Automatic annotation (TrEMBL):
An annotated GO cellular component: mitochondrial matrix
Family under the similarity heading: Belongs to the BolA/IbaG family.
SUPFAM superfamilies (alphabetical): BolA-like
This protein's name: BolA-like protein 3 isoform X2
Pfam families: BolA
Domain of life from the UniProt record: Eukaryota
Organism (species): Pogonomyrmex barbatus
Amino acid sequence: MHETRKNLSTIGISKQRNKHPIKKISTRPAMFQRVFTSNFRNVSLLSRLWNGSNGVLAGKHAEQKMISILRDRFPQAQLIEVTDVSGGCGAMFDINVVAPEFKGLNTVKQHRIINEVLKEEIKDMHGLRIRTSIPQL
């Protein structure tokens, strides 16, 4: 038994009987708490993984939904493009809108309108790139 304790101590495992070596691994319980709570920002990604849905369909569905919402808000838009740039998992999108409704608004205000219109869709995303402009005559 003395020989076993000596071998364990040489590889860095505690000699004390009441300590379990695995407990040393869980130094960040807050990280695990974030992953398993409903406040986790990527719940949609986790739910797709757990439910067996592939990300490509989810990303394409999200693209179509956002295009539909933007078409309703900007009926005179000359161009509305929504592209999943995260490889199909739906975490990052590129949005391009060319609409006369932006006339007289600076870029920040234009982007705020897009953010407000897509507020529900954006909340579970990692990122969003927005490009807006006014149609050229």
